[in-house]
């Protein structure tokens, strides 16, 4: 099995794990403040990451790695979790998941800017078509029921794409799990302060689904998923493997419907299936 194939397999495993993030976040923000959720999930993941770094006696990153790691932390540890948590107080998980279809284009753009990748022109056609389908769905009724929620999701997509591309670039030298682990550790002091500042008066008011949501986004979305995802991007190419995120809406919509009882409209399903079809073409012309 060549490195590119391994990259696509690792990338798919990462996407599979990430597909549960928005439904889990939706469940958690039902009982937890979005700021508390953002801080606490990062703190839990950072403590686990710190234990991993100590157990494997990893060397500290070089000074030149600190700024890129800060960018990763701002993008995927702070920015995306916070913005999506805020968005999910305005829109459903099913609606927000469709915006994830824009992530491949965002990741590819930053892959070109930060990773020096040069996909073929046909790649941009397929990637742009998938993104256009998602944007068209979001705007099919003009301004949606919650413009605030939509704007927050779009901002989340931008910062996440940057964090993905920067992390993948670093992973080629530091390793996938090392990058997300060091980014989490760097963000730990700030996230601990956020957690303490937003600590709820009582934790007993949170239901089981909220606690399960918090556990999932802390362990899987913030740590385990990135181990596979960054490795996949580094092995198979940021722009190409990034197109696997086009599968995430379909997987996430299924979870939102089955776990949260949310309605998945025929239009949502049709757009998601059409977007998935674009991944084959984008993959073919990614290099």
UniProtKB/TrEMBL annotation:
Gene Ontology cellular-component annotations: membrane
Residue ranges annotated for the EamA domain, each copy included: 7-130, 148-279
UniProt keyword annotations, A-Z: Membrane, Transmembrane, Transmembrane helix
Keyword Transmembrane (UniProt): yes
Chain ranges passing through the membrane: 7-29, 35-54, 66-87, 93-113, 122-139, 151-167, 179-199, 211-230, 237-257, 263-282
One Pfam family from the record: EamA
Compartment annotation: Membrane
Protein's UniProt keywords contain Transmembrane helix: yes
PANTHER family: EAMA DOMAIN-CONTAINING PROTEIN, INNER MEMBRANE TRANSPORTER
Family statement drawn from the similarity comment of this UniProt entry: Belongs to the EamA transporter family.
Protein known as: Transporter
UniProt organism field: Pseudorhizobium pelagicum
């Amino acid at each position: 099995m060549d490195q590119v194939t391994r990259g696509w397999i690792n990338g798919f495993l990462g996407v599979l794990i990430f597909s549960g993030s928005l439904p889990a976040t939706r469940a958690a923000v039902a009982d937890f403040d979005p700021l508390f959720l953002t801080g606490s999930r990062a703190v839990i993941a950072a403590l686990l990451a710190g234990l991993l770094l100590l157990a494997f006696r990893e060397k500290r990153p070089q000074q030149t790695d600190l700024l890129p790691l800060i960018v990763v932390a701002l993008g995927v540890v702070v920015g995306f979790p916070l913005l999506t948590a805020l968005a999910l107080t305005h829109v459903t998980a099913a609606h927000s998941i469709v915006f994830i279809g824009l992530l491949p284009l965002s990741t590819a753009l930053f892959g070109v800017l930060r990773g020096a990748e040069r996909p073929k022109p046909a790649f941009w056609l397929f990637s742009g078509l998938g993104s256009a389908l998602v944007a068209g769905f979001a705007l099919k009724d003009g301004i949606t029921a919650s413009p605030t929620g939509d704007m927050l999701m779009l901002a989340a997509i931008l910062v996440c794409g940057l964090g993905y591309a920067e992390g993948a670039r670093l992973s080629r030298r530091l390793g996938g799990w090392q990058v997300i682990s060091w980014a989490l550790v760097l963000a730990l002091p700030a996230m601990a302060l956020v957690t303490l500042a937003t600590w709820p008066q009582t934790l007993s008011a949170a239901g089981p689904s909220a606690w399960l949501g918090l556990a999932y986004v802390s362990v899987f979305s913030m740590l385990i998923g990135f181990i596979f995802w960054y490795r996949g991007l580094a092995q198979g190419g940021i722009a190409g493997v990034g197109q696997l995120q086009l599968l995430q809406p379909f997987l996430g919509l299924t979870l939102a419907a089955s776990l949260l009882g949310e309605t998945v409209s025929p239009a949502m399903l049709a757009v998601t299936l059409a977007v998935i079809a674009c991944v084959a073409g984008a993959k073919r012309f990614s290099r």
